Each structure stands twice: as structure tokens, then as C-alpha cells.
Amino acid sequence: MAFEEIEAPKVSVPADFGIERLGDPSHSNIVFKLKDDLEIHANSVIVSLNSPVLEELISCLSFETIDVDDFQNDAVQCFLEGCYSGQLKKINKGIFRDVSKMAHVFRVEWMEKRCASYFQYLAENIPGVFTFQDLSFLFEEACYLERRFKKEASLDLITSKLSSSASYRKCFVEQYLQENSGQLDDRQLNAILKVVQRQPEMLVSFVIDQIRADRSSLGKDAKYFLRNVNLSRCFRKNPDLKEKFIEHLSLLEFPSAEDYKLVLLLYKSCNTVIEKYSSIPNLFNSFKTINEFSTFEEVTHFLSSSQDVKSFNMFFEGIFCWLFNQANSETKLPANFDDRIFAIKEKKEWKNISSHLVEMLVVDGERLPVFQSFEGVLNRCQAVSSKGYAYVPSLRDYDWKELLLKENDIEFHISQSDLNPIEGPCAERGECGFIVHIKASTEENSCSFNIELLQDPEAYPDHIHFHEDIICSKNMHFVLEMTFSGRKRLFPVSWYGKPNPNVNASIWKWGAIYFMDKGETPLGFPDENIEWRWGLGRKAKITPAFLISRDLH
After folding, report:
1. DSSP letter at 56?
2. 186-195 vs 132-149: helix axis angle to the nearest 10?
3. Would you say the C-alpha torsion 54, 59, 62, 65 has a positive or negative sign?
4. Checking phi first, is residue 131 left (phi over 0); if not, alpha (psi -120 to 50) or beta?
5. In whole angstroms, what is the distance from residue 106 CA to residue 122 CA?
């Protein structure tokens, strides 16, 4: 029997090599030179296993000494003990920045992660009785990590934490701005904006205080905040603050040309009238128009040139509806149709299509082999996005008469962090969301039907917090979710005009969907030639839903 060698496991870090060996002359062949002419002797193998940078310096460049006098001595000691023990037992707030910097400079990955965990621990365990220094330390370190090492997660964590509590904001913002007036860069000012995003009057008060202290002209910080704060919203809630703000602007003695421009812009924005409702755009296009075309080339040319088509979702729905109505014909897609479609997409700079729309519409496309080819190309060309949109259904279902024939305010809930991951969770009380108003159809005037977004924050009830900065009608794509034959499906309505009744109003139709009081038998209007139809009775439940574009930048 041949001798079989057993492969030994490779050493991986972090590992406990024995902290007692650090500085032992019999094991140490590399010298770290610290401040004040101090030295720490270490084992080159142990530090090299932890750090590829030290491995390069020692093994390839034959370094025998490593200068680390840019760092605090205690931080170097903590770093080296960590390399030996696999733990950061001596890390504290005083040396955190230097230890984190050393871990980054020497590319000790596990130590960088431990530093991040330590920082997260500090952020999540602010003392019950906290001081300005507690909050300022966290903010300063987070800004440093973001500026020096592009670690945005730490800054996002701190801005979210500070914005979550009125007491944090009150303790931190005013004093921090006063102590650092004129010295903050745009990153820091933007982080302050995020901290006070739901209490912008704090920044207006800061600008007023700055003008009171120096009437010569607007300071750098004041200009930044005035350009970026939503003053219109702020002053709607605080009309007295608006009067005070205008009064202090008039006190400026030597305003620059830039100051004048900024004041004019502010005046314009503060006096803009906000409409209570905003219609959802591109919703009621004519299917008859799109059905006039007999070839794929004609319909794609129409959709690419139409002013009503402002997204790939709208383009896709138009193609789907046209193909669907061609179900009984021998429609064939041209050999290079995918190249044409994606040339249009790139020229228009449209975002990818929502995966929800593709996955739930193709249930209906199962009968259409030609459409399955279209779906396959979308996936192969990576034109389908699962992260670019939030799918937001209404809080409850409706029957068709509730939805079409009654005035309704329909509630939708959606978190800020779902729509804008960069901002993180909202600090306000209540549910984030929005309300859509349904203007009802009537037998006398079916054209009265409309779907409108309630966009005035002041009109919202206390239990709904409306993010007017990230929820707007132009980013919303409307669909109907219904259960048909035991399966949930999305029904497109954007190319089917408005719902309208037959002669005696016993049936209402919206595109290929027919609503009636009884039964679920497909019925149609005798004067129309739509092959596939769905008839929905009064018991059928309909869920209005929106695909809302996310901000991922």
C-alpha cells in the first residue's frame, strides 16, 4: 500500500498566533518605527499573512524596517496586536481613525471589517445621556471615512441615525454649524442636509443667524443650503419664518451678483403655486391608433416617434397590446427586430423595463409564440430590471364599480429606503406613501374618468407622510393587478383609452377587459374585433398598482 500524504490546511487570518510573541526577540525580524523614536519588533511572517502590502515590502523589496510614525503609537500597538491575536481588544474612539486607516493602507481586510463593525456599534449605542461631542465624533469620523476611503455606508448610517431623533438634531446641528462655519466642504454640508431633511427650518434659522452676525454678504454655507433646501415646503409650514427670512435678506449690505441671482431664484420658488393634484401622464392613449398598423416596423416607428411614449415600459406595453391583438394573424417579427428595439432604447436613453411588467404580462402572452420570442430577447439583452422599480400595490382590493364609478382616494404605502436606498429609512412618524384620486366615470360622460396623484403635502392626513421630492407622477407607471383563472396577472391599460359603457351600460370595457354585474364569461362589444377578452364579474377583485422608478444613484 502506497503512503498517502495528507494535505495540511493553509493558515488563514484572522488567527491567534499568540499575542505574547509580539516583541519577542527570538521571533521578531522586522521593526516598526513609531513616533518619539519608539520601536516595536514583530514577526515578518505573521504580519505578512495579515497584510499583502507588508508581504510585498518585506518579501519582494527586502524591507527590514517599516515607518509608521504617521500614526498614533497606541494605534500601531493595537494594529500589531490585532495581527497577532486576530482581535482588536484595545480599539477605542481615540485611536479608531488611525487603526482604521492602517487597516486600509496595509489592506488588512478582516481588520477593516472589524473597524466598520466597531463604528456601527458606536452609532447604534449612543448613550442615553449623550453630548454634542458624542454626536460630533460619529459625524466627523463618518465624513472622514467617506472622503478618504469612499466608505459611504458609514456616512449613510450616521446621517440616518442623527435624522431619526429630534433631540439628536437639536443637540448636534446648530452647534456643529456654528463651530465649523465656512470650513465645511460640500460633502459635509450635504450630509447635514440629510440629517435635517425633515426639519429644514433649522437651516433657514442658521442662515438668518449668519446674516445677523455678518451683514456684508451671504456666506458659503448659507448659499449651499439656500440652493438645496426645499424652501417652498418649509415656508408653507412656517409662514412666520418666511417673513423673518425675507426681512434678514434685506439687511445684506454688500450682496454679490451671485447673491442677487440666488435671491431671485428663491423668490420664484417660494411663490410657486402647487396644484393639489397632478394627472398621471401617458395613461389614456388610443388603442385604435396603435391597432391601425399592420407591420411590426410600422408600430415600432410610431411608438419611437410618439411624444406620449416617454419610457421603455410604455414602449413595451404598446408592443404587447399590438402583438396581442394580432394573435390570430401570422405575425412575424423581422430577423433583426431586437437590434432595432435596443437602438431605439439607447437613443431615447430609457431605463430598462420593469421585471414585474414582463413577468406578469407574459402570462397572457403564453398564447402568443411571437411574444415569447420578444420576451426572450429582452432577457438575453439584459434590458429587464428587477431593482430599478418599486412595485407598489394599493392597500386593499376593489370591485370594478368601486374603482370606475365612484370617487375614490386610494392609499399606497412605500418606504423612502425602497425608493431611494441612498437616503435610508425615513425618520418621520407614520407610514410613507401617497394617495391617488379616482375621478369617476358616468354613463353620460365616460371621459370624466381620471387618475390623479395628490401632490400637495399639506393635503395629506397625519398618518401618511408624502415624499414630494421622490414621488412624482412622471416616474409612475399604472397597471391593474387582477386574479384571473386562479393566477395573478398585470393588465396593461395605458393604450386602451378610458373605460366606457355599452349602449345600456350593462357592461363597461377598458381595453380587452369587460366588467359586468354577473358572471365571468368573456363578452365583447359587437362592433369591435378583439379576439382575446376577459369578463370580470362584481366579485372579481382588482388591485390598482404602480411601478415607480427608484433612485439608485
Report:
1. I
2. 130
3. positive
4. beta
5. 24
Position 82, amino acid: G
pLDDT of residue 377: 65
CA distance 531 to 524: 9
From the list 440, 455, 510, 492, the residue with the least C-alpha distance to 282 is 492
pLDDT, tens digit (0-9, with 9 covering 90-100), for 134-178: 999 999 999 998 888 888 888 888 988 888 788 898 899 999 999
- Torsion 460-541-451-197 (CA) sign: positive
Q: Does this model's pTM top 0.90?
A: no
Quick one: DSSP state of residue 119? Answer: H
CB atoms closer than 10 angstroms to residue 137? 16
C-alpha cell recorded at residue 352: 430598462
Q: What cell was used for 544? A: 390598482
- Output the furthest CA–CA distance in the chain (Å, rounded): 101
Lookup result for grid cell 443637540: 171
pLDDT for 175-213, tens place per residue? 999 999 989 999 899 999 888 877 888 999 999 999 999
Task: Tell me how far CA of residue 549 lies from CA of 313, 329, 466, 473, 528, in angstroms.
Answer: 11, 35, 16, 10, 35
Task: Measure Cα distances from 61 to 54, 109, 267, 295, 529 in Å.
Answer: 10, 22, 64, 69, 81
> Which residues is 31 bridged to in the sheet?
41, 65
Rounded to whole angstroms, the Cα distance separating 360 from 465 reads 30
Extended strands (E) in 126-258: none
For 319, the 3-state DSSP assignment is helix
Tens digit of each residue's pLDDT (9 = 90 or more) over 289-337: 777 888 888 888 899 888 878 888 888 888 888 877 776 566 677 777 7
Residue pair 132/171 in contact (Cβ under 8 Å)? The answer is yes
Residue 202 CB coordination number (10 Å)? 18
